[in-house]
């Protein structure tokens, strides 16, 4: 089964080798038929500490690295070439 890849914005880079990424998903409400936005924060592993607040990043599922960290930052150049 392929790993999930999500796109989001870095909202925190205070921890060492960890960033917090806000991912937004949009869907149509089943009853009201209105577009609804939901956001969720993911802790991701950033080995190089190269991403700062406000950067748009791609994250991919990975092995559990800590209590909250289960995602890994994907190289942005590789993702841009794939898309």
From TrEMBL:
Pfam families named in the record: Ribosomal_S17
Domain of life according to the entry: Bacteria
One GO BP: translation
GO molecular function, one term: structural constituent of ribosome
Entry keyword annotation includes RNA-binding: yes
Alphabetized HAMAP family for the sequence: Ribosomal_uS17_B
Protein family: Belongs to the universal ribosomal protein uS17 family.
GO cellular component, one term: cytosolic small ribosomal subunit
Subunit-level organization: Part of the 30S ribosomal subunit.
InterPro entries from the UniProt entry: NA-bd_OB-fold, Ribosomal_uS17, Ribosomal_uS17_bact/chlr
Protein name, entry field: Small ribosomal subunit protein uS17
Functional note: One of the primary rRNA binding proteins, it binds specifically to the 5'-end of 16S ribosomal RNA.
Keyword Ion transport on entry: no
Gene3D superfamilies in UniProt: Nucleic acid-binding proteins (2.40.50.140)
Keyword terms of this UniProt record: Ribonucleoprotein, Ribosomal protein, RNA-binding, rRNA-binding
